[in-house]
Design a protein that fits this description.
Layout (H helix, E strand, L loop, with lengths): L5 E7 L3 H12 L5 E12 L2 E14 L2 E8 L2 H6 L14 E8 L3 H11 L3 E7 L2 E8 H4 L1 E8 L1 H6 L10
Length: 164
């Protein structure tokens, strides 16, 4: 049941524009929702950090593809396991899957029961996220999310896709 609500595969890149062009040309992604930049505070095991990144979201069938370009040292550190070591290498690298939860209470309760380390958590009005460190179990992070219906609509949730 853990993967119920899987809706997103997240990738990191050193150049969002080139990664978007690659994903559009090669895989037909279009109609991106942009966060340019996403600028917020996130909680990490090392304390609160300034998170600054460019992000693009696009749907491919029932899966949303998220492309993330970290813009500051604190944000790069959060993605170091997946981010290409060479600054000129823009090819997107897999980082996480995301799952949707129906209520904020269900989200926080499930995360508490897991007793796994977090990479970060944060949010913006109408959207909350937690990156759970599941590298020992799955080899990657899992982003667990909750959002209002308005925020899902803003993110272009497909009308025919079930919420969970």
């Amino acid at each position: 049941m853990f993967f119920k609500g899987h809706y997103q595969n997240g990738y990191v890149t050193r150049d969002l524009d080139r990664a978007m062009a690659l994903m559009s040309d090669r895989f037909g992604l279009a109609d991106y929702v942009m966060f340019d930049p996403a600028d917020m505070l996130v909680n990490t095991p090392a304390g609160t950090r300034a998170y600054k990144a460019r992000m693009a979201l696009a749907w491919s069938g029932g899966i949303q593809i998220e492309l993330i370009q970290p813009l500051n040292d604190a944000t790069c550190e959060l993605y170091r396991d997946a981010l290409a070591p060479e600054p000129s290498d823009f090819v997107p690298r897999f980082h996480h899957v995301a799952v949707r939860r129906e209520t904020p209470e269900r989200l926080t309760s499930e995360i508490g029961r897991m007793e796994l380390p977090l990479l970060m958590d944060g949010g913006v009005p109408g959207f909350t996220f937690y990156y759970v460190d599941m590298r020992k179990q799955l080899g990657h992070f899992v982003e667990m999310t909750w959002a209002t219906e308005e925020m899902w609509a803003f993110n272009k949730w497909p009308a025919d896709k079930p919420a969970a």
